[in-house]
Write a structure and sequence with these properties.
The chain is 42% helix and 12% strand. The protein is α/β, with parallel strands linked by helices. The structure holds guanosine-5',3'-tetraphosphate (G4P).
Length: 284
């Protein structure tokens, strides 16, 4: 993700996000619905504090539908509001707006009592890189904006983007760091493409992905690639997929890296299926 987080850097980011938080009525915390735990910042509760927060389970189109409900229930039990969003097909955005009004009602009533009426409700977005923050801003505002970029912290001059109704969004998201010290989290981020293939080489990453997919259900690989998984190793499975897909180099050998790239790419695009990689009872 091309961000090197240093302790000083993290402190500065936190401070600048906290400063921006004082300007808004609600925070949208964007996470990836396929890896809700792994895509959450470890210090999120402390950073957001008492500010109303709406958890946006983004990329819900790529995640398992049953798992989506399980995660929503989990957050509800933790006293947090969440919403399923698919920014590509503009699903869930009306729910975001509706929940924003209900979560900020107390504040709006308090302002109304002071004679301040119709002040726009202000929101800001936070989340780790690649969870879809820029896409979410663009979808909510229906603009075809440029990518905000993965510069940590909030550096640009703030601007407010008008959203449906009486809602305004800070145009610059707060970019947070992921959990560093959990190997499984790193793997989940690498599988989904949040960490750009730099954690592990493609071959090892794909072997681990195939292993993970088979541990969820061997039907996932079987259905997509029309092969029998049985007790084959991930390595053998990738070779077989490579053969089937015509990934052959001179001498008739399988182009293993090409086969790996196909599998990784199809997983990330949801072509292997709608797959959630972690459930609440599997996290620490
Ligand atoms: P960021 O600002 O949080 O860093 O994320 P960004 O919006 O750039 O989105 C990262 C990738 O996720 C983009 O793919 C984007 O299209 C995709 N994305 C965002 N929201 C959704 C969603 O709801 N569903 C699906 N299926 N995809 C979503 P990309 O352009 O291919 O970028 P990259 O993966 O090559 O970085």
């Amino acid at each position: 993700m091309n961000i090197n987080w240093y302790p000083g850097h993290m402190k500065k980011t936190k401070e600048s996000i906290k400063k921006n938080l004082s300007l808004v009525d609600i925070v949208y915390e964007i996470i990836d619905a396929r890896i809700p735990y792994s895509s959450q910042n470890p210090d999120i509760n402390n950073i957001v504090g008492e500010k109303p927060r709406l958890i946006v389970l983004n990329k819900s189109d790529l995640a398992d539908q049953k798992a989506n409900t399980i995660w929503q229930n989990y957050f509800k039990e933790s006293g947090l509001h969440s919403v399923l969003v698919d920014c590509i097909n503009n699903r869930g955005l009306d729910d975001v707006i509706q929940l924003t009004y209900s979560l900020t009602e107390k504040k709006r009533l308090a302002l109304g009592a002071k004679g301040i009426k119709n002040r726009p409700v202000r929101a800001m977005i936070i989340g780790i890189p690649n969870v879809g923050k820029s896409t979410f801003i663009n979808s909510l505002s229906k603009r075809k904006g440029a990518k905000v970029g993965n510069k940590p912290g909030v550096t640009k001059t703030n601007q407010w983007i008008k959203i449906k109704g009486n809602l305004e969004l800070l145009d610059t998201p707060g970019i947070l760091w992921p959990k560093f010290d959990d190997k499984n989290v790193g793997l989940n981020l690498a599988f989904t493409g949040a960490i750009k293939d730099e954690l592990l080489d493609i071959e090892t990453l794909t072997i681990k992905l195939v292993d993970r997919l088979n541990s969820i259900s061997d039907k996932l690989i079987e259905r997509r690639y029309n092969i029998t998984v049985g007790d084959k190793s991930p390595y053998e499975i990738i070779l077989e997929i490579g053969k089937k897909r015509g990934c052959i180099i001179k001498g008739g050998e399988v182009d293993f890296i090409k086969a790996c790239n196909i599998i990784l790419d199809e997983f990330r695009k949801g072509i292997i299926g709608r797959i959630t990689l972690e459930l609440p009872d599997q996290i620490k």
